[in-house]
Amino acid sequence: MTTVTVRSGHNFQQEIITKEHILFADEPIDVGGDDTGPNPYELILGALGACTSITLQMYARRKQWPLERVDVELTHRRDYLQDCEACEEKDTRIEVVEIKVALTGSLSAEQQSRLHDIAKRCPVNQTLSKGIKTIHLD
User: Fold this and answer.
1) What's the CA gap between 107 and 86, in Å, rounded?
2) Mind listing the pLDDT tens digit of every residue in the chain (138 residues)?
3) What is the pLDDT of residue 78?
4) Residues 84-105, buried b or exposed e (16+ Cβ, 10 A)?
5) What number of other Cβ atoms are within 10 A of residue 10's Cβ?
6) How many Å apart are CA 114 and CA 37, to the nearest integer?
7) Domain coordinates of the chain in residue numbers?
8) Distance between CA atoms of residues 13 and 57, nearest Å
9) CA angle 87, 88, 93 (to 5 degrees)
10) Which run of H or E residues covers position 50?
11) Minimal CB count within 10 Å: which of 44, 73, 90, 127?
12) How confident is the model at residue 92, as a pLDDT?
């Protein structure tokens, strides 16, 4: 089980406390924040990118493949056209995350292909893709 505590700070700044680390989240200045840290969507993308990279590094290490570096670029957007087409029928928002993985190392084409397949199977990607059940304990 993983537990994280979040405490509100000045303005919209949030202090994120894990077992051994403290991070900050905030909103950009143009929406009223102080921009002292990534916004919540940037944190989600960061978690997904980190999990993707770690998963690939672990897999390559286990296979003893010459993976030297992983770069993951992620973009979040909403497909508003698709949202609008279904908006009268149900509460719909189509969230899209585009993930670009670049691998560095003397990898064969087969190894690169396999690593790109494995990238889609990182645990955070699986969690986000399958949906999260949240339980609010008041």
Assistant:
1) 44
2) 899 999 999 999 999 999 999 999 999 999 999 999 999 999 999 999 999 999 999 999 999 999 999 999 999 998 665 555 555 666 566 788 999 999 999 999 999 999 999 999 999 999 998 888 889 998
3) 80
4) eeeeeeeeeeeeebebebebee
5) 9
6) 35
7) 1-37, 40-130
8) 33
9) 15
10) helix 40-63
11) 90
12) 60
d(CA 124, CA 133) in angstroms, rounded, equals 14
Helix or strand run (H / E) with residue 57: helix 40-63
Tokens of 65: 């493949």
Q: What pLDDT, on a 0 to 100 scale, did the predictor assign at position 138?
A: 85
What tokens appear for 115 in the block? 């690593």
